[in-house]
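Posted in: Protein Modeling Q&A

I'm a second-year student putting together a small comparison for a lab meeting, and my supervisor asked me to include a predicted structure for LOB domain-containing protein. I've never done this before, so apologies if this is the wrong subforum. The sequence is pasted below exactly as I got it from our records. If anyone can share the structure token output, I'd also love a short note on what stands out.
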Amino acid sequence: MSSREGKGGGANNVNQACAACKHQRKKCSNCPLAPYFPPGHSQQFENVHKLFGVGNLLKTLKSTNKEMWPTVMETIQFQADARRVDPVHGCLSIVRQLKAQIEETSKELEKTNEELSAESMVGETPQIDIKPKNLAQPSATSRKVRKGKSNA
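Accepted answer (user: helix_wrangler)
Welcome! Here is the predicted structure, written out as tokens:
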């Protein structure tokens, strides 16, 4: 046997209970939560337990297909962690932040398309720089390059 056997989490571990079973002070045998809350992840389980509760967590898992359990648990853990960071808004603050970034980027794209359309009407061939850049600010160097070509 290797030196790694017997360590870590999950139902294969005879020596240690998973974080969910530790919290409930019971022996971990055939626990459906063991793969998602290994012994060292007690804080993560506490976050999920505080938001959803063990009963609701088990009901949610039993109401979904087994192959979807990893995705369901990942989502539940993400929501619990977001609620720990922002107790008032939780995931909503992340959604709002992403929505604001999308709106800002859409406005920048619209402005860039207007600039390209105006330049193509003048007869210039538009030059598009596809390198990643800061989405909040248009590239100052691309404006200088275009101005330099029009003056020459």
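A couple of things worth pointing out for your meeting: The radius of gyration is 26 Å. The chain is about 55% helix and 0% strand.
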